[in-house]
Amino acid sequence: MSKIGKFLLKVLLRIVLLALGFFVVTFTIYIFNLDMKATAMLEPFFEKWYDKLERKQYI
Amino acid sequence: MKTVNKVVNPVKRAGEQSPAGIYDEKLKVRKRREWRGVKDTFYDYTRWLYLVSVLAKFIAVPRNIKGFFRYRWMMSYLFVMHGMDKFTIGLRDEALRITHTSFNFVIADVTQAIANCFRGDRRVGNDKAYSDACVVTDENSMVTFMMGFNTDEVHTILREVPTMFASNIFHQFNVMHYLDIAQQYGIPGDVCPMPEAEAGISIEDDFCVLGSCAVQNNTTCDGSLMGNGIIAKRLEREYGIPTFQLATPLRHKEPDVLEYAAEEIKKAIAFVEEHTGAKWNWDTYFTAAKRVNDATRCRIAQMEINSTPYPQFFGAAFSLYNDTNYMGNSGRNADFVTIDHKLLELAEQGYQAKRMYAKEYRHRCIVWGVQPQYVIDMLYWMVQCWGVVPLTDMLSVINTDMIAEEDTPENREQAYRDMAMLNMEMIMRNHTHGGYKVLLDDLWDLCEKMNADIVMMWEHMSCKALTGMHGMFEEQARERGIHIMWVSHDLCDPRVFTRQAIRDQVNSYMRTVMREEPLDPGLEIIPDNEAY
Amino acid sequence: MRDLKYLKYFEDLLQQANNELIGKAKADGKVCVAYTCENVPEPLLNLDRAVSVRLSAPNTGSLDIATYYMTNLLCEPSRALLERAIEGGFNFADCVITPDGCTMMNRAVENMELLKTMGKDNPNFFHQYMEIAFKNTENDVNLAVLQCTNHILKPLHEKYGIDISDASIRKAVEDHNRLCRLVRELGEFRKEAKPRITGYEFHVFCLATYLCPKYLVEDKLAETIEEVRNREPDDKLWRARVLLVGSEVDDSGLIKLIEEQGAFVCCDRFCFGSYPGRTEIVLNDTEDALTQVCRHYITNCQCPRMMSMDKVYGRKQYVADLAKEYGADGVIYQQVKFCDPWAYERTLGSAMLQNDFGYPVLSVDRPYNVSSSVGQMRTRVQAFVESIEIKSIQKGGRA
Fold first, then answer.
1. Å from B17 to nearest chain A CA?
2. Which ipTM value was assigned to this complex?
3. Which of B48, B321, C56, C215 has the smallest count of CB within 10 Å of its CB?
4. Are B214 and B241 in contact, with CB atoms under 8 Å apart?
5. For residue B70, is it within any domain?
6. Residue B81 with chain A: CB contacts under 8 Å
7. Is residue B2 part of a domain?
8. Any domain includes B529
9. Which domain holds residue A37?
């Protein structure tokens, strides 16, 4: 196999590995609903933040 | 009583058989996502990725982060994926694709609406030139009066859609805060919570402030009309944004109101021209009119498919897509045409393949009244738990007439009447207002046409137009041998009726009146009352 | 003060929807035009031999049947009217003309129609529903003219042969104005420091002008004005003077209750009160009478469902002007429970009257029949009167 061929194969392998890694990570997040579980943990902090904001209540 | 033939799904569902396993009462979101078999899970995963990319693009803009920390309602959008999961419980094949195609598009549209709000918002983006080209409208406004304005030149901002309407779909508790504010200032708790929450948002100063002018409408109900006064006062007196009240007659079936309504449309257009400096363009209008007609044809075709034993596009995704397209778009955005046709193609494909949402369809149901925002998955639940297939909902039963689409001198005059007609026959109010015939007779006609044996009556307890005909629904349903299943709720206040309290009304009816056992007993009680 | 000669007579009239005077009008060959909303131009219902009768349901008790048809989520007046219609209390009506004003009242009348509660022995009986104006523009005037023509004049003429000519309308307006002058004149006595008529008494007379055929109450009203003119006022000093604003008050007991707490109801600005309902209609000879009547109703309309902002702000200004004219110390914004239009109007109105015009405001909701909630209402009014007194002391006024 030529040098270029080897290089291309390496790049391809890396891309495949990266894609696979991306898939494994994101699919794990997706299937176990980790994205929503994480944001659900953040929600109480945001609640406090919004409660602290000063607003001009007026009718 | 009327009966319909039971339809049994010969195909076993791919993946897990019941979505009951995804709920966990200790969590405010789902325990995990549903396993739908390799093909459909992968599809669902790709759509999840797509939504992640939509949100990532949104949050990559600094002013959107600023907006996120300014507005309490933005918290709902942390749970977009959770919201999407509500729409897809138990779905496979074409049903899953239809729901994703339609609702992903709606989400992208709402995300863009928020980005637009923040761009012009005096507190966030403060892009003055952009803001000056914006016209703020109600969440319940038909935007027909904007059909002839070039979308690059004038921007229609349905400010209340992302702030209240959509945010409540993703987070069931988020509106309660604004209801409390409104009630603290004296608005009673018995009015419709939607305009009440909007008034609360205005009192709390939690609306984006932008636009050269605003157009309000009386399209839904007395509460909506009255809430506008509170909002307009702040817009005008505090922020100096002039508001126009577009009066829309209630008795829309009477020919003697049409000229008045058309004149109001003309005035609204003149108002927008005056404040934005933009000019009405008839080419733009008739292009939009063609799209409106195209959307109407697609919707009619979808309803025809739903009249067969194998309905394809129904539930919350159907009504919300129609809301967005018919009311918020009104032919202005060409992208809807592509989506309309894609949805129709998927529905036709599903119909040919006799795809079903559940293992059995025992009853064919028309859903009448207004759905609660916080139990948006109810109809998908109903078909899977009880085999009651919702053929259509009231909000999707809208105009079927074609409007003038060729630019001729006569049609330019006709165009005002067409816009007025569409405006008067806005979603929901085309049945809740305009006399009892559009509420009662239209329903029975629909039952006949779509061969339904059950009507599920959403009894939104603050919707006086609907509850005011309670007895008549009962009597007339009895005369026609149609089952009527009352399901009470309070639109967007889960403190009045929890999700399970709403589902229990169906459970009780199916067990005690219909004497049936659920198709999926695991779904009869779902521990999601505390979930977002 | 000495009892007014006709007070008891009028009080008795208000005890029944189908009162003695309606019977007399029917015997006189009149056509009874029933209606439910102040937005219907009243003179047009009193053309020729037509007489208008506003539907009401005094002494409402159980609302069971109406609640079955309309649920307990609709306002009590709408359910009370339906209940009374089902009981046969409105059988005198020869037609019902209803605007699609507030949804609940509209639904009440639609239920009446579907249940065929009226007109059983009258082949000419009809129901008509009108679209009514939302704003104060010429487009709205045109709408009103068309609606009145199609839903009042034509049916009255076709079914009952009523004369709907311009001359007939002008005559009806003349009669209407005469009555308005009488009511307003009677109401003027409330401006006095030591008023010779109570808010309660005035309300009884004023309400009767809506619920009874007008031509049968006019002479008694005129006589009452003379009687009041010569009446010796009490030495009693009222603790406060209040302007009552809001939903229709069919139960004069509400005003009596307020006055029992020492607050004199010096002016009324509610549906079917004297403001704006008993405002004279000024006609010119250059324009047709129908258009002028419609314009009057649109210009003077103070209904909360009028949505343009000039009307929204104008309504509060109107209340403030009345409060000033009648020397009110405070304003009571009240609404019948479940009334959407007044729920919002009460909220915004009470805030604006307080913040923009500086009036103390009591903002309350109440049942249709106040007797079912006397204790609560009394407490609210007592507290309000005390708060006005305290403010007055703080400003250096009388205790």
1. 17
2. 0.95
3. C215
4. yes
5. yes
6. 35-36
7. no
8. no
9. 3-52
